[in-house]
Design brief:
This protein has 286 residues and is of the alpha/beta class. The chain has helices at 15-21, 28-33, 38-42, 62-69, 76-83, 125-135, 138-152, 156-161, 169-177, 185-196, 234-249, 259-264, 266-279, and strands at 25-27, 54-56, 73-74, 94-97, 106-109, 201-207, 211-217, 221-225, 253-257. The chain folds into three domains: 1-60, no CATH class; 73-177, no CATH class; 185-279, 3-Layer(aba) Sandwich (Endonuclease, Chain A). It is elongated and about 80 Å long.
């Protein structure tokens, strides 16, 4: 997890240890600020300057190196990965926040609004979310925003205050959809799919004798979205089977899907759901 504070432990470390602790690359100003002169860095075997004002190790983190040599900071999807935020699609290009239009080979974002206290070339969680809301596909944008508010306690009003301009309309809509009910990227994907298909459903519904279910359609069709790591143990698997059996005994119908089915087999998923809905709760068509 990246450092979110500019403070540094009180123990003494040498220049090599410090460089390694910040990803193997740092600006001269950061090194000086922590008591390391260029001469002390120059004595490190293999240390080099990829550009003036920056020192790096051969093992430097390639994204941090790219960020510093382009005078930018990781943001959007690239920073989301570093912070452990939810993403369906990992970025195939680095996302950088810069105040200039130079350089290429990366997705460029504007300057930072909130700023960052990190020792690393990494945008704040708040800026990461703001950039994601304006850049990424809908499911990823909502997922990044939701996980940032859940994991880091980012206040919704802070994000909203940075998205007041008229051209942020889409971003504001996506932020509003990060309502905390969906608990994973696959659940957010299922929500978007079912909304686009015009289904009437509720999320995270508590049912007496059953517990909480992911999605309840038309008050009687339960849809559960379970990843391959969903059951942490055999006892957890037995508990879940018992829960779904209890639902069926109470007259509910149950469909369970893996994330890959929600993402890659949407026609098949919808055909099954619409088939059950057409037959009705009592199983008779019409």
């Amino acid at each position: 997890m990246p450092h979110r504070s500019s403070s540094w432990p009180a123990w003494t470390m040498d220049a090599l240890e410090f460089l390694r602790s910040v990803g193997g690359v740092a600006r001269v100003g950061l090194l000086r600020g922590h008591g390391f002169t260029p001469s002390s860095v120059r004595r490190i075997a293999g240390a080099y300057q990829p550009r003036k004002g920056i020192w790096a190790l051969p093992s430097a983190d390639t994204e941090y190196l790219s960020a510093l040599t382009n005078n930018g900071q990781l943001t959007c999807a690239s920073a989301a990965v570093r912070y452990g935020l939810w993403l369906k699609t990992k970025p195939n290009k680095i996302h950088l926040a810069t105040r200039h239009n130079r350089g290429r080979g990366f997705v460029r974002h504007g300057g930072l609004r909130v700023g960052s206290e990190a020792l690393l070339p990494l945008a704040s969680v708040e800026d990461t979310v703001i950039h994601a809301l304006t850049c990424l596909a809908e499911v990823d944008a909502i997922s990044v925003a939701q996980s940032a508010m859940t994991r880091f306690g980012i206040a919704r009003h802070v994000l909203e205050s940075e998205l007041t301009a008229k051209y942020f309309g889409v971003a504001r809509k996506r932020l509003a959809m990060a309502d905390g009910l969906s608990e994973s990227v696959p659940e957010i994907s299922a929500r978007l799919l079912f909304e686009s298909e015009g289904l009437s459903f509720k999320r995270q519904v508590g049912i007496e004798g059953v517990g909480r279910v992911d999605i309840l359609i038309d008050g009687w069709l339960i849809v559960e979205i379970n990843g391959y790591q969903f059951h942490s143990s055999r006892s957890a698997w037995r508990k879940d089977m018992g829960r779904l059996n209890a639902a069926q005994v109470r007259g509910y119908h149950v469909l369970s899907y893996a994330p890959e089915q929600i993402w890659n087999s949407q026609e098949h998923v919808m055909a099954q759901i619409r088939g059950l809905l057409a037959r009705g709760r009592d199983g008779r068509r019409g």
